[in-house]
Fold:
Amino acid sequence: MAKLWAIIKREYLERVRSKWFVIATLFGPIFFSAIIIVPAWLSSRSKATSDIYNTAILDATGNGFGHRLALNIAGDSTIPGRMPEVRVIAPAALTQAESLATHQVMQKDKTGYVVVDQQTLAGESARYAGRNATSIADMAQIKSAIRETILASRLEKVGLDNSRMREITFIPLDFSTERITEKGRAGSGMASVMFGFAIGFLLYASIVIYGQTIMSGVLEEKTTRVAEVVMSSVPTDTLLAGKVLGVGAVGLTQQIIWIVTTYILLQLRAPIMAKLGAPTMSFTLPDISLGAGMIFLLFFLFGFIFYSSLFAAVGSSVNSESEARQAASPLMIMIVSTAVFIQPVLLNPTGTTARVLSLVPFSSPIIMPIRMAVIGIPPLELAASLGFLAIGCLVALWLASRIYRVGLLMYGKRPSMREMARWVTYAR
Amino acid sequence: MTEYAIDIVNVTKRYAEHTAVRDLTLRVPSGSVYGLLGPNGAGKTTTIRMILNIIAPDSGTIHIFGRPSSDPKITERLGYLPEERGLYRKMQVKRVLKFLAELKGVKGSEAEVRIDEWLERLSLKTPEKDWGLSKVDELSRGMQQKVQFIGTLLHDPDLVILDEPFSGLDPINAQALKDTVVELKKRGKTVIFSTHLMDNAERLCDSVCIIARGEKVLDGTVTAVKEEHGQRNIALALEGDGMHGIASILSDNSLVKRADDSNRFFEIELVPGGDPQALLRRIVESGASVQRFEMIQPSLHEIFLQKVGAGARAPRAGAGAGGIEEGMTGHG
Structure:
């Protein structure tokens, strides 16, 4: 037991100390936050931006229309910098004022300017010129602000007093949107789909990354012949178990760091988005109960043991990295073909494909957690999936340990599948 | 304490294509230095791996210090230096050594003390530079070999198994290894090593076993092997021109089988069971003045060539002969 511990400790510490681990662990949260923040930020570009506050209003109406428009654009805010600048201009001086404003826009002092005059008061026309003239959202907001201001002026004319008028024209409409697809309402389901996708991706990535880590670790021990020294001290099964557990612990450590930092980033998301000038959308993670969390962990552990023991067997049977890549291709095909099904399963989590794939040991550790994230799984199906996976693990471990102990001592040409099958039958 | 450090009885190990070890019986006395000699591919490494319980024999039994070799407690009393050496390249030297010690049941804190002692002893730790803090691949090859010795001996094993320990060693490390083997023997440890370098074996070993094609060719103490398997030749030189005076003695067929004039001395082969002392007495009685009368022992090298080289030339194992030649001219 102390020896198993020594092996686990070495596998764990040597990898956690390596700079690649540190880089990958830091890169993870940056990557995830980019996934979360960039699309939101991009989508916010379709809403009116803060550019509209940095505009000038050239008011040639002579009745204070410009000030009311500025208030409307700013959404009743009078904070400097959040409100367009109003320049009251005599109609005769308008041309000169426009060329000054144009110059300021060219110098990037202003984003653009609105010209309002008698025709605007009559509800006939208004003009805007500026850098953001192509931004549909910005133009829509300015246009609706002008409409509102005209409406207010007209109401004033018919004798409504200021407070009544504000009462009537102030419509702080919160227009929420929700998409409906053939599957029904998509809106609130989106969060759990994203969550399911994240889980699937995390499981897939960690199996690929750490499976190959184990493979090259085994290969290193074989090619440097350290394996022989270690094998003279501990049984090969202990060595294999120590590697799988040690590297598995590294993977788990990394995922916990990723999950915690991503969670913190999600909490900090609102301030970050505000800094970027994008409005914050509410984003709530699906509630994960402790029980569900434990089942996710079980799937991760079983899936990891299943694949990493097979990767270890491959590593022990070859003599170089290039041979290893070739020999590992059947395993990679198993994993990648599972990953291909992540999206179809997310779209149709109750379909036959999804149900079959979540029972087969080589795909269930990725597919079942995804389904769990989006729909409720009957306990019986869950138990069957875990049961088959556990049996799959035992078979994989048994096969792997037999190939491993023979392979580690076999140098020379790469064995054929038939030879490897024969290794399994070797006594030792 | 049992008499034998290693007791191998009728062990056979087969692989799909060939039999690596065939019905091998071998006993290594406790506290001795034992040489396992044989050409490449003779089954030395397979035998060593079975002793270490890395692989299991198909039939037969192996006992180490009277316990089955599969006993986990026994592995802690063994130290092993494999033929092809290597360590975790990216790992710090001290951490590698501590790991190897822990696998042999040494506690971490105890291991650290011993590691420092050993590093100082093999001058890998000096006031200027502590190589123990470097990564393995920053060390020169010679230093890595030293680190590997330390790894083999750190847990103070009672039985040290060295597979081709001299291959690839520079003369300084080779000398250090020889010194270490001698010191281990003085401390009552048993050392078994495989080699195809007969010179080293002849100088270091108390006993040897020659195996070829998976079978034992001969074994015993070096003295016994030489007596049993070499001709007992005598080199004789007389002062002045006295050779002619003893011609009648040398032609006595009851004592001398063959007398060969080797220019500066006669090389005399006695008949089987012939007593060299009787020959000496007769020569002295004849009045000749003896300058040199020496039992020439055949070297292990010659015995090896005679026993294995001849057999290896049989069509059955042509590859073995190449192995011997390679071994003879290779490392020194």
Summary: Chain A has two domains: 2-43+186-425, 50-169. The CA atoms of residues 306 and 393 of chain A lie 5 Å apart. Chain A has a mean pLDDT of 81.
